[in-house]
Amino acid sequence: MIHPTAIISPQAEIGAGVSVGPYSIIGADVTLDEGVEVAGHVVIEGPCRIGGGTRVFPFASLGQPPQDLKYAGERTELMIGERNTIRESVTMNRGTAGGGGVTKVGSDNLFMAQSHIAHDCVVGSHNVFANAASLAGHVTLGDYLTVGAYTGIHQFCRVGDHAFIGAYSKIVKDALPYARTDGNDARCYGANTVGLRRRGFSNESIRQIQHAFHLLLASKLNTSQALERIKAELAGLAEVDYLITFIEQSQRGVTK
Q1: 179-204 pLDDT tens trace
Q2: Domain-embedded: residue 109
Q3: What's the mean pLDDT in 82-107?
């Protein structure tokens, strides 16, 4: 399963059923778990671990040093979960000492061609990154979200679960969960109703999420006032409670 032109470091750990295509390079301290498929012309540098069942397409570059001027060669890691699809020319960098030392990617994500995950990012699971979607350093993403093509997300921003970010968006504040956020500069356009229905949310849950966004975006209340109304009228629904907590924990402010 290893092409004769591939270069595999003796310090790499290769699991059962792994395949490595022509001219790919697997460096020291790289672990490829069971069933990982690496196409031709891929470069993976360690320390890096890639979970079982992940597919890596040509010209991807994983585990390279962070693009951070403060990086001084310290040992940092890239950890990638299971069953991810990493398409052509995707780049994912290791962490920095100042950011915790680890870039983490969950499982069952689709990274389309040329998307980029920078140092110290934390990416959840079941997400879709369209072509050339890019995360700056220290970005935190939840689960079941979509990041549109050519979108850029600023350092230290967060994106909540089940969010939809439109193509070519510029995200400089936290993007709300369950919401449609789009534009340069980005604005929030209410609940991601289509995405929530596709994920099996009940009509009642969607109605309450929509009402929460109405109070937050269209009621002419400021954010603090809107949160008080949301707590008074909708607290107790798990999704609304998560939305409230997400806003209250924001350090950069949220996109409204």
Answers
A1: 999 999 999 999 999 999 999 999 99
A2: yes
A3: 97
Domain hosting 12: range is 7-138
CATH number at residue 12: 2.160.10.10
Which amino acid is residue 182, in one-letter code? D
| 128 plus 13 within the same structural domain | yes
In the residue annotation, 137 being an active-site residue is answered as yes
Return the closest-CA partner of residue 171 out of 191, 190, 151: 151
Cis amide leading into 29 (omega within 30):
no
Taking every pair of Cα atoms in the chain, the longest distance, rounded to a whole number of angstroms, is 66
The pTM of this model reads 0.95
Burial 18-42 (b: 16+ CB within 10 A, else e): bbbbeebbbbebbbbbebbbbbebb
Choose the catalytic residue: 21, 99, 119, 166: 119
Residue 138: active-site member? no
35 is catalytic: no
Residue 235 one-letter amino acid? A
Report if residue 190 sits inside a domain.
no
Contact 127, 141 (CB under 8 A): yes
Active-site entry in 137, 152, 166, 190: 137
